UniProtKB/TrEMBL annotation:
Bilayer topology annotation: Multi-pass membrane protein
Tagged with keyword Transport: yes
Signal peptide (from-to): none
PANTHER family named among the record's database cross-references: PTHR31686, SULFITE EFFLUX PUMP SSU1
Organism from which the protein derives: Gordonia sesuvii
Membrane spanning stretches: 33-52, 64-84, 105-125, 131-154, 166-189, 201-225, 237-258, 278-302, 314-337, 343-363
Family of this protein: Belongs to the tellurite-resistance/dicarboxylate transporter (TDT) family.
Compartments, as annotated in UniProt: Cell membrane
Keyword Transcription: no
Protein name per the record: TDT family transporter
Domain of life from the UniProt record: Bacteria
Keywords on record: Cell membrane, Membrane, Transmembrane, Transmembrane helix, Transport
High-level lineage: Bacteria, Bacillati, Actinomycetota, Actinomycetes, Mycobacteriales
InterPro entries attached to this UniProt entry: SLAC1/Mae1/Ssu1/TehA, Sulfite_efflux_TDT, Voltage-dep_anion_channel_sf
Amino acid sequence: MSITLDVRRAANRRLLTDLDHPRQVFEHLTPNWFAAVMGTGIVANAAVALPIRSAALDAFATAIWATAAILLATIATAFVVHWVRHRENARGYAADPVMSHFYGAPPMALLTVGAGTLSLGGPILGDSVALWTSVVLWSSGTALGVLTAVWVPFTMMTAPRRSENVALPAWLMPVVPPMVSAATGAALIAHVPTGQPRLAMLTGCYALFGVSLVLGLMTMTMIYARLTHGGVPESRSAPTIWITLGMIGQSVTAANLLAAEADHVFTGAQAPIATGLAVFGIVFGLAMGGFGVAMFALATAVTVRAVRRGLPFALTWWSFTFPVGTCVTGLLALGAALDAAPIRALGEMLFVVLVAAWATVAVRTARAAVRGSVFRPV
């Protein structure tokens, strides 16, 4: 009996050593934990988008999607416990001028896993179950994302003025979800009945594209002005500058994936509409891609500067994953629309960078979770 107790005590000392009690895991569980789901799921979705196919790549993508799905279920359950047991803390984070923006992460987590379910879940769940699961995740993620895109800016407009309320890259988090809905909704269009229902789905996705694009561009203008006049984020917040690439990459993805589906909606006399949307996707992708190159270089420079000054690990490191993943899917979608091998090759090379970044952040997160340091208040 004494040996068993000693073993248990030794295990307890190895796990959550940075916490006073295991229950503290739920005490400060902030919404940016869902970024781990986003960053994991986008690896699977980007792998599916690659022009090359192999059994090994499919197995890898399926395993990553399954990991993202498990993470989503686990974090969502823990988040509910957080709200039930630590309601005061939860409300405080929801009202916080910085943390509240990360409430855009839960809907994007739902949408990312939903997209993977449609493309990878069939062999495991069955085609019908995979389709309907994807529909439920897309619908709930879209509804929650639109709500977040309105609710967070509203709270900012009506909250008491604070001197520290300056534009940060995290401000993009609540306005990007509708763009993710537009990009992931493209794959569902073919499963919608032809005629008016399919037209409604396509136009609805373009409306979501417009909502996010306009709000995102306005927000990015404020962020860029703040960065040039007020300096880049320091220390733990430095990686959040990569969030700007999420809007860029996801918008290029959405514009070209939706244009590809327009051929199945606008036929006959309306075929020129599909052609016009395809041209729009290409022109938009090339123009936004140039902007993306500049922001990628800027984000890289800021990150190198932060690393040289000592960049401590934090959940903000997940900003290295999802935004880069959207650039991969954007390049691949644009490359397919143009049938441009160099653009596709660039997307493939960036996929390698994405996998390396994901592996690094995932390992660091797992280690910090075992110690319990990531569950402490920021």
